[in-house]
Amino acid sequence: MVAVHAWRSAKPIADFKMCHPGRPLILQLSGTDLYEYLSSDPAPTLRSMELADRLVALNDLAWRVVPRHLRARLAVIHQSATPLPNGNRPSRRAVIVSVIGHLRDVKDPLRAARAARLLPADSRIRVAQVGRAYTDSWAGEATAEMAANPRYLWHGDVPAASVRRLLARSHAMVISSSSEGGANVVSEAIVAGVPVLASRVDGNVGLLGGDYPGYFPVGGTEKLARLMRRIECEPAFVTRLRRALRERAPLFRPAREIVAWRRLLAGLPD
Question: Which of 235, 208, 203, 239 lies closest to 218, judged by CA?
């Protein structure tokens, strides 16, 4: 069995091991498992982890929250991404900062829009956001932000092809989450060479690397605004970001992910 999400899959995991105690179980840990449920509702999460023969995480720093007695079972497998068909070709009409992800609390989804309010009047930055609002409240907040903030546009839920087109014309991509397990959109931006401005949480640092120069603190509106302005005004800063992404990009090749899964499967107990 390969299960995703220790907390949500707790019952099927327990049922599988009860019916097939000798068969192997792989558990891929989500960000909410690692950074929420291990603290807020640990019993079912830990039970799932202890029943698993192998644990899979998506970022290099996940081990820091995995209980010590389970770390030997842990493997990190980065989610891969394919290059954009025509590469990153930033818009010439404006400086596009994209925010890609559903609107829910953990994503702190309007942080980039609020940062854009702090930019000087001559800034050409526009924040383009895509993603479904998880609640009516978030939909209302995004709609109100559009009415009050001429730099911000929320497109709602869009097809994957539209997401990739937005990424292709972006000058930067913001991920402002208060926690992350290892967001695939970060993998996609890295492979595309789109500069990432990221909250400094383990799930982001575990993908981008500890020395990456594009971090801001969780909820750090002013620091994010300064980074956005640097994207607009400092070509040397953009070059630094792109160079750092090129160094990380090999980690997210599809062939590497396939090899990692094959190695994990081959090492399972008989």
Answer: 203
The neighbouring-strand residues paired with 215 are 198
Please report, as a single letter, which amino acid is at residue 268. L
d(CA 188, CA 193): 9
Q: Which residues are registered as beta bridge partners of 57?
A: 76
DSSP 9-61: THHHHHHHHHH-TTS--EEEPPHHIIIIIHHHSHHHHHHHHHH-SEEEESSTT
For domain 95-252, the CATH superfamily is Glycogen Phosphorylase B; (3.40.50.2000)
Confidence of residue 63 (pLDDT cuts 50, 70, 90): very high
> Measuring CA to CA, how many Å separate 85 from each of 42, 44, 135, 194?
43, 43, 34, 14
Render pLDDT for 69-113 as a digit per residue (tens, 0 to 9): 999 999 999 999 999 988 889 999 999 999 999 999 999 999 999
Q: What is the distance in angstroms between the CA of the first residue and the CA of the last residue of the chain? A: 13
User: What are the tens digits of pLDDT across the range 174-203?
Assistant: 999 999 999 999 999 999 999 999 999 999
Other residues' Cβ atoms within 10 Å of the Cβ of residue 242: 13
> What residue type is assigned to position 150 of the chain?
P
- Tell me the domain boundaries of the chain: 2-78+253-266, 95-252
For residue 54, which of 21, 17, 24 has the smallest C-alpha distance? Answer: 24
Complete DSSP assignment for 205-236:
HHHH-TT-S-EE-TT-HHHHHHHHHHHHH-HH
- Pull the structure tokens for residue 146: 């559009």
Contacts of 42 (CB under 8 A, 6+ apart): none
Which amino acid is present at 153?
L
